Each structure stands twice: as structure tokens, then as C-alpha cells.
Protein 1
Amino acid sequence: MRAAHLVKYGPSATAFEIRDIEKPKPAPDQVLIQVEAFGLNFADVMARLGLYKGAPPIPTVLGYDVVGRIAVCGENVEHLQEGDRVTALTRFGGYAEYAVAEKEVVYKIPENLPPGVAVALATQYSTAYFLSHHMANLQENDKVLIHAAAGGVGTALTQMALHKKCIVFGTCSSPEKIAYLRTNGVQYPLNYKQNDFGEAVRKIIGKSGLDVIFDPMGGKSVKKGYRLLGAGGRIVSYGVSSMNKTNSIFGKLRVLAQFGVYHPVQFLSQSKGMIGVNMLKLAEEHPEKVAGAMKSVIHLTEQGILEPHVGGEYPITELAQAHSFLESRKSMGKIVVGW
Ligand SMILES: NC(=O)c1ccc[n+]([C@@H]2O[C@H](COP(=O)([O-])OP(=O)(O)OC[C@H]3O[C@@H](n4cnc5c(N)ncnc54)[C@H](OP(=O)(O)O)[C@@H]3O)[C@@H](O)[C@H]2O)c1
């Protein structure tokens, strides 16, 4: 089978090579999926730049989410069968014609579900569901700030917060994205390139505080966000995309220092909290929680409550362009690559 290997860290044009390799064999609790398309995630860009510590050494096959048909079921797999059309989480190995996935994170999907929507549900929507329902526990009328609101996870968080009847503030970096945020229902879209987001939010909320902030950037935006929280407020930190500009140890330390220093007594006296989420860690210890999130988002999409947006569909021959597009920060919603 063919698989797109990451062979060199750096620009996308020279990073990937299609190689022929053996089809993987599923273990008893796994399935083998014939991949129709795979999704891109921001973590893939970090891995390509050599900035993702959790990625295997090169040459390697990236990829967290796939859509396709089950080719082989492991002997312990009972709820699925060969030929089922599914979306699945893969822990790497998704950029291939066949990929294996653990049975808990493989979901049967309707025949007519577009591939981009299917993979958005597997990663970005499941992540957003876990962040908003389990960790932040959004409540009606919560004032919620969503950073990178035009991105894959940001789009999903916005739809979930609106479904919970929250008041949504969303940040992004261009007028095109501001327009997209409005169509996705964000009540207060903020372009942080034009105005400091902290000052812009403060102007709107006055002396009151925000209830929830979702932060995938890390560093100084977390520090600034923490100051905007009111009593009972919580900031959910789930990414460090601001680290993608630097490969030096000093650059990384600078971003880490920019988060600020906190003491639990401070959380106690101010009644504010900070939460970190890593879905891979969660999947390792509690695959049933990831599976529960996946099941919920598929159900909510079937009901028309969630509407994943596909911001780019590329053939495998244009994998490099798809990666550049995600890296360029111009993408909105999910990017998908088909075989
Ligand atoms: N913790 C977890 O388990 C988990 C799971 C899934 C995703 N994530 C994280 O969630 C974030 C969103 O992932 P996604 O796949 O949906 O990507 P995405 O949001 O579609 O793309 C990333 C967006 O982040 C914004 N951004 C802000 N600062 C940036 C920077 N310094 N460099 C690049 N982009 C920056 C950009 O939007 P603007 O320019 O408009 O700000 C960009 O379009 C990523 O940080 C990812 O690592 C974490």
C-alpha cells in the first residue's frame, strides 16, 4: 500500500514522500480501515516542523483521523464488520491507504456523510466536546472566549457553546475570518491583529468577568486570559501553537515563562481555575471517554445541531499544499486529504 511519509522536518514542499510499504495487520482489539480520506490537524504541522515531542522519529507516517471502510476486524471486535463505513482516530499512521485503529475509537457513519465532516467529528469535534462538556461544563449565559475561533476546534467549540446558550466571544486574525465567525454565530468576533483582545473584551464586559476561556495558543494569551476571568471562571489550556515559531530552547522557555506563574492558593482565594487537556493522554487511560465524545458529536450532527465546516479538500498529490494552507493560518474549519 502507499503511505505519505514525513521524511524531512521543515517546509511542506520537501517534507513528504509517498512510499510503498506492507499493509499493517490489526491486533485482536483493532480494525484495519481502507482509507478514503484523512484529516489534517495543527499537531501535524508542529510534527512536520520537528516541534512535536510526542511524534515518532522520521521517517514516519502522521495522521490522527481517517474515514473509510473496514477491511479487516480483529478477533475481539464485535460491534463492527467488514465493509462498514467508519470514521476513526488513529494514533499516527493515518496518511496511508490502510490504517489500523483501536476498536473503541472507530464509529460507523452514514454512507452520505462527506469525508471532511467525518474526520472533523473524529478529532476536532470530539476534542471540543470533551473540553466544553466535561472539563469546562458550560452553562447557559456563560460568557465564553474562544481563541482561534475560525479553526477546526474553534468552529466546533463555537457551535457547542451556542447550543448551550452561552454568550460567545471569538478571536481570529483577519477580516475574512471575522466574517466566518459571524456566520458561525459568534456574537463578539474580535480581530486580535487590529485590537488587543484583552482590552476589546474588557470594553464589552466592563467590570464583570468571563466564565470560560478556551486557549490553544499558550504563553502570553493564557496570562492575559486569566486576568479576564471572574469568580467561578476557568481557562482551558489545550495547545501551545505560539511555540511553532521557534525551535530553540530559549524560544521555548520564553513561551513557557509567558504563561505566568500560579499558585493553588491564588485559585482558591480568587475562585478561578486552570485546566489542561491532552486528548492522546486521555485516550490512553480512558478510551471510553473519547468514544463517548465521538458518539455524542455524531449524534448531534445527525440531529442538525452541529454542522462541521470543511475548509479545504485536497487530493493526496497536493498534501504539501494542504499542509501549507493549514500552516498559513488562512484555513477555516477542517482540512481533508483524499486518496
Ligand atoms: N490538547 C489536545 O488534545 C488537542 C486536540 C486537538 C487540537 N489541539 C490543538 O488545538 C488547536 C487547534 O487545532 P486545529 O487542528 O483545529 O487547528 P486550526 O485551529 O484549524 O488552525 C490553527 C489556528 O490557530 C491560530 N493560531 C494562533 N496562534 C497561532 C500560531 N502562533 N501559529 C499558528 N496558528 C496560530 C490560527 O488562527 P488565527 O490566525 O485566526 O488565530 C490558526 O488558523 C491547535 O493548537 C492544536 O494543537 C489540541
Note: The mean pLDDT is 96.
Protein 2
Amino acid sequence: MSQQGYVAAPPYSQAQPGMGGYQGGFGGGPAQPLYGHYGGPPQAFAAPPAGMMKSPVSSAAGMPPPPASNQYNPNVQQNGAHPQRYPAPQAASVYGQPLQSPYNSMASMAPPPAQQLTNQMSSMNLGNYAPGPMQSPPPPTSSVQQPFQTSPPQAMGQPQMSPGPQSPHMSPQMSPQQSPMSGPPMGGPPMGGPPMGGPPMGGPPMGGPPMGGPPMGGTPMGGPQMTGPPMAGMGRPFPGPPGPGGFQQPGPGAAGPPGYPQQAGQFGGNMAGHQPGMPGAFPGAPGGMAGPPQKKLDPDSIPSITQVIEDDQVKRGGQVYSTNIRGQIPPLVTTDFTVQDQGNASPRFMRCTTYSLPCTADLAKQCQVPLASIIKPLANLPENETPLYVVNHGETGPIRCNRCKAYMCPYMQFIDGGRRYQCGFCNCVNEVPVFYFQHLDHMGRRVDFYERPELSLGSYEFVATLDYCKNNKPPNPPAYIFMIDVSYNNIKSGLVKLICDELKNLLEHLPSEEGVEASAIKVGFVTYNKVLHFYNVKSALAQPQMMVVSDTAEMFVPLLDGFLVNYQDSRAVISNLLDQIPDMFADTNESETVFVPVIQAGVEAFKAAECSGKLFIFQSSMPTAEAPGKLKNRDDKKLVNTDKEKTLFQPQKGVYEQLSKECVAQGCCVDLFLFPNQYMDIATMADVPSHTGGSVYKYNNFQVETDGEHFLRDLRKDVQKSIGFDAIMRVRTSTGFRATEFFGAIHMNNTTDIEMAAVDCDKALTVEFKHDDTLSEETGAHMQCALLYTTINGQRRLRIHNLSLNCSSQLSELYKSCETDSLINFFSKSACRAILNQPLKTVREILVNQTAHMLACYRKNCASPSAASQLILPDAMKVFPVYINSLMKTAPLVGSTELSTDDRAHQRLLIMGMGVEETQLLLYPRLTPLHNMDVSIKTHPAPVRCSEERLTDSGMFLLENGHSMFLWLGQAIPPDLVQNIFNLPSLAHLQGNMCALPELDNPLSNKVRAIINDLIEKRPNSMKLHIVRQKDKPEMVFRQFLVEDKGLHGGASYMDFLCYVHREIRQLLT
Ligand SMILES: [Zn+2]
């Protein structure tokens, strides 16, 4: 890898014909059999038919904002803000948001501590602030004054002070920055506190393509200076640290021959064989290192995610984001904003890795930036945003292009006085149906433009006609079947009683469509161990009746009438049943269970009732009873870090594979709640959920007292969340590109139709696009996602999301329009799929290679010339390396024998269904200080960087990543704080297993509990609160979430990783 040429290793994201999707990189063979991919040559659309218009279809970019009061809904709230107007849409199309002076956004920030300005940062700040070109030398340390050429290779990270033309620098120890185009350097933001500042320049910061505004220049970094053997911390997640003599020896004293390092020598031999938990790991102090002591690089000086999040919140928080501009980059997922749909789908439904596609396949290949869209088709909208309109065209159904079948949308161009329209996807000219005819106004727009959601909005729904229903019959409302493992473990732990008690309450709150009082969902109940028990809960019965099926080889449902019922009708019988179940099995000795027959029973029940629905399965052990799908323990830690490690993630085939297909065909979604005390083969057991839009929850060593509430919160959320069933989705694109890869809890029978037994509001699919022709800068690129599904009330609907992107022949446009959070979602999913087929080491190598490649390509093509020692990052991707490094340290990818195989498999599957918000939070947890917050302020205190350095002995910090939550207590925490939070005199009195805070009536306690409850409520998964004291053993678990630090199970610190990537980039550029 170290010797590869600039465009050597093709990234796995660029499929080549016949290479199975992950060319070169992730697996040569076909990806996963269950996931379709385009293996064949690109199939372009047929030649345009005669009579096709030559003029380009108008894009949404030119669409003016609709009248201030939205005609569809006078209640659209705009939070008091004006919808944004864009006087010159074309020019503004890259930066949809109003240009804002960086000073504004920085104004409120405290000036950096003087200390931070002095050393590494000095040059940059001086450069940015000085009225003239920066001349001041950096502090006189020997390292910084050495010109690069004579520096030893090890010094690559040392500050380089040569004035470079880079301008908007957010980077640490940067050379003085001066825009070549703007006279005196425009001030950058004060760099101390917010070290990475915002994009400072108002003017075109660099000499490349003219830039409309903010940050283009990239983020040059003077090369993080390394203090210690930087690679020692790099652990194993990526290819491997250079050995001693290279990177590791710090300081000028270790100088080798002048000039660039011999790359092969640096990296070659060391890559393969480094040891887990490298000896010596990361020295705690510079004193532990060889070589003369060296100034330590201020961690504040490398790009910070918390800063990026904060900057975006300052800049775009609280605003209305109007979707009327093509290729507009939305605020970050972490920013609070309100969306107003004006012709493109809300970013809550669709986000993209870049909002400016490269015009040609060659450009795409050159930069290796994946082109993908992350789609959460049923995403929840906040209350102040308008729910989607439902359009009903009666028996004729939605209007679609005759050729490509795209649905009527804002990208259809009406012509010929309104009698025909040209499709924005395939360019075919279609007749307008008579009933749909409307005159055009002087701008060529239909006069009913604002009255029809499908003409003016990015997202809306159509009522589907019978043509869109199975067997041309309207669907029945879906059903929920609760299937409870009543074997010994679950009875003994009290779980069965807990579930039964909760269901009585939960069934009162089954979801229903907005505005509909009673839920239409039918419910049914099964208990099982080695055999299955079905219950007749017909309302006419005084007592529920049980029917036992002990032949699990050929599963059938012994009763039809009375099994799936309306809860309201059968409330009394069901309540009776739920009271009885725990007692019925109280004396059981049965410890073996079946599993596949349980799911089969659910599918059979849905078949018989001609409905779709969801199975809620509560199981505590691996199915070892004699029955189809019987499993045995195949866990083998010896496989970790070998080429066979992938088998740990691969599900057992055969009956499970077949079962997934049957479930999808019937619209049977499977949710699994697992309560394991030991290995369960989650890779296999979760296979059906992961192909049916289901969720998998896991509670290790479940105890009612400490885990009960956590589980019940998950169960409530899961039962009540909005969901669609029996879904099929298709992503259409305008000519020149198309969807080729699909990642999610989905099933694909062919290369285009994404099948989901169900899709809920939290599930996201990631779709990758490839070119098959040249894209036009003028018309841009359109995509339309159409989801056909059955609502919770049993109505068949089509949900349409449209999005238009820019296209450019300039790579700088692409980099400028990238969204790091979406990129990282794509990489997370593609890597998690790749580990099914490839050694983890290879997957990690590809991640690092591709990261370096993407950044090198930016450097080569988009940044102005500068010293090779500078690390220059595109502004929109400046925190990308933190995420990639964190990704490689996640349980599935890290390759550690200390992690349980089931935990790793579970997290892998979770990631596959995640949206952009979830992967962002997972890979960069929020670490929030709570000891010094202002309890009178409503908002949450600002998070700090996820690193041990941010913890203070006297502090209290909350860390959460959407799946785990910790309250960390420093050992020197003041007693009054302990008193206020725990009602205890000191930390020593704290019980080890506490998982909730006592309800104390003081402002601090109220505030801390409010923050915790808010997060638990807000995240898709509930979280269990772990309370950890500094230096206690459980603190180790907490520390693995400090993703900027060296990984506990292997993996580099952020700083080391950045140095490593920088090195890779330099190799690519030589
Ligand atoms: Zn078409």
C-alpha cells in the first residue's frame, strides 16, 4: 500500500463491470448474494424518441420560492423567520445559505487562551490577523525553523512556517495565511478557543475556480507535530505503523538524511506484522520517548468535530432551510433548523455525500469520493414542519412517465401550452392526461402549480390504486404478534412477567395513523420453548385457549379465527391471558428453545390472515432444540485477525436465507429482543431481522432490576414508532447516472427494487450511484425515490422524495459540496458489508487508502500550491479523518479478541440500518461536562472533544453515542455535587450497579436528570445509564468511547491517525 501510485488501488466504492461491486478493494467476488448489484455493463436509456425536446429540462434551481403563505397549509410555521430568498439562485446554488461573515459566527466565542495562541497556532493567527503578509517567525524552536527539505522525515508533523498561499485556514500551526486574491489577509476567526474556526474568508480564498463564498480553500495543516512515537498508538486498525527509525523517532535529533523519507522503508515491512497492543503503547508523557523532548502539539489545533458542530449551529441553527435550490447543502444533522419544502426533499429524508456530482465517470474515479444518498423514507418530522400531503388521483392513480415510470414531480417540464410534459429523468415527452390538463402562465408554469404538491414540493404521497396492491386487493391492516420465549431462563429472570405486565399497558397505545383514534393493528400471542403455544383470544371467549404445536418441522398455525384480533374487542381475554402466562410456566424446567419455527409460525399466520405485520420475539438463548434452524456454538476467537474472521459475521445459510425471503414476500418484519448470558450466534439469529427492516435489541446478562426499565423503554419505542409495511422502493435518476449499490435492512431480488418487509421512521438506506454517461452542468442531476408501502391503517400509499443536485466538471465544486456526515455513513455501511467477504485488515487498509486518496486528490487538484509538509484538507471534509479513525475502532472493525463475537455482529447489523444522525453520533459520541453548567439555561451544555484530556478530576461528564450512556465522575468531585446528585456524602458510598439517578429536588439534580431523560427520549434506542467513577474498573468500558484517544482494543489516536494519513497523502503526491 505504501508504494502504490496515485491512483492505484481502486476504491471499493467504484464498481467495475464484473468485479462484483467492490472492485479491487472490498472483495473481488459478487458482493453479497442477497444484495443485488449491477454486474453488467451500464445500460443506458434508449435513444430519445422522436419529437423529444432538445432543450434541457428546467431544474428546480430556478424555482422561485412559493408565496410566503403556503397554500397547502396555512399552518406552516416558519419559526418567525423569513424564508430565505436567493436573488441569484444560480450563483448561490452551491452555498444555499446566505453568506455569513465568519466573524459573525465567531463573535460570540471567547477569545482563545493566550497560551494557545503562542506556540503552534501563532503563525496562523498572526497570518490571519496581521494587516500585511505574515512575517513573524514562530517561536524559536529548532524544529519549526527548519525548512522542510532539511527536516528529517519524522519532522513532517512539525510546524512549517513558510508562508503559503492557502487562505481560509483553520488549521493549527499553520503557515501564515494569506489569500493571494484578496490583498491583506482576511482575518480568520480567532483560533484559540475554537481552534479550527470557521471558514474565514469572504472572498475567493484561493486561486482555483472562482468561489462564491465560504470555505473553499481547504484546511491546511502545518502537519501535526508529533510528540511521541506516533505510530505506537496506531494499533491495528489500519495497515500498520512504520517501525522505529521512521515515524516513531521524534525530534530533530533523530534526523535521518535530508529529504523525503524512503517510503517503502518506512512502511513496507512493518505493515503486516505489527502486534496487537503494541508494547509500550502510547507513552503517557513525552519523557517516555526517545529523542530530545519536543514541544507537544496542542490537541486543540487539529480539526474538531465539536467545533464544526458548534459553528454550524451558530451559523445555521434556528433558521428555516428552504429547499428551493438545486445542489444546496443542508445544515448538519446536529444543527437545529426548520425545513420548508420548496421543491426538493427535506434533508431529514435524503442526504447526499456531495451535492455536486462530478460530470464524468473519470472525475469520479479520480477523486474516489463515493457518490451516495442516504434515504430515510419515513423519517419523523418535527412538529413545526408540515406533514406530507397525500394526493389522490382516484382510479387513474398517480401520473407517471410512460418510459421510465417516474412519478409526476417538480422536474417535469410542461410544454406545448400545457398539453405535454418532458420527463426530467429520461427526457421522454408525454401527453398530459385530459383530466390533468392545465394552462401555463407566462413563465411556462402551470397555473395550478401551488395547488398541487406533486408539482411544487420535494416530498408528498399518492394514494395507490389497486394496481399497486397484492393480488389487486386492498391490503388488510397489519398485525403485531408477540412471541415470548418461556424457557427456564426467562421465567427465572422475571422477564416473562415483565413483558406480560408491560403489554397490558402497551397494547392500549398501539400506533395509528394521524387523526385516527383507534389503532387498526391486529394482535396475536405465542409462547414457546421447544414447542409453540398459540392462543385463541377471541372476544367472545371468557378464557383464552391454548393450542400446542409440538411438531416444529412443518410449522402451521392451528387456529385462524381468534388468533389475530382487534385489541379493543378482546381486551378482557388478552388481559386474562397476560396475567396467566407467567404462572402457567412458573415451574418449567425446559431450557431448550426453537427459533426458526417461531418465525415460520408468524409468516403462516400473516399468510392466513392475508396481511403484513411485525413479529416481536423475546428470546434468551441460542436455539438448540431439534428443529429447523437449530444452531450450535461456532464462536471461535482464534479466527480474529485471520483471513477467516469474516466467517464470524456470516450467517448460517440454508433455512435462514429461505426464511428471509418468505418473510419479505409476506411483508413479515421480525424484531428481536435478545437476553443472552452467553454466545447466541447473533450473526445468524439476526439475519432475518436484518433483511426484513427489523431491529435487534440485546441485553447481556439481563436482570429485571438493572435492565428492566431500559428494555421496556426500547419495547415501547419499538411498538409505537411509525412504520410502513410490505414496502418496495425504487430510486430513479436522470440520465447519466444510476443507483448501483444498496445498503440497509433490506432484501433485493433484482438490481433495482429494494424490498422491505417493513420500514420504520428510524431506518435508512444508503444508495450508491455510478455514472453511465456524462452529466450536464446545466441540467444538474435529479433523483426520485418512490416508496410503495402499506400504512399502519392498511392503506396502500406511494411516498415520493425528489432531490436535485448540481453537476460540475470542477472537482473543487465536489469537495466544496461534500457532507462528511453522509460520507461517513456510506463508509460505515460499505465497510460493515465488506467484512462479510474480506479480511478486516484489508477493509481497514482500504478505508485508510481511500481517505488518503480522496484528500490527496483534493490537494493535487483543488488546493493552491504549498509546502508538502502542510496537511491541507477540504473544508467540508476537515473532520473526515476523525470519523474514519473512529470507524476503524468500532467493535466490528477493530479485530480484538477482547470483544464478544455477538457484540461485534450486533453492532455490524445496527450500522447497516442507520441514518446519518445515528452514524455521526455513534462514531463521535457526545461528551458533555455537567459539573460547571448553568442550571438556569434550558439548553444542554456544549459538548467537548471526545478525549481523556478533556476530563477533569473534579468534574462530572455525560457521554452518549445513541446506544450507550455514561455518567463519569472524577475522583476529586466536590462533595456538595455528590450530595446534590446522589444524596450521598461521598463517592465512596456510591453503589456499583446504580442505573438511574435519585429524584432529588435541587436545581442541579433536576437539570442533570432532564438532560439524561431528554437524550433517552430523543434517540431511536433507549440507553441504559452507566455510572462510572474515575479509576474504577468499569471506567475502561467508558474509555473506549473516547474516540480521539488511542483505542483500548487497538486503533490509533486521532492525532496519530492524522499524521499517518498526512504521510500517505504525501506519498501519493510524490
Ligand atoms: Zn421518464
Note: Confidence is low (pLDDT under 50) at residues 1-218, 222-295.
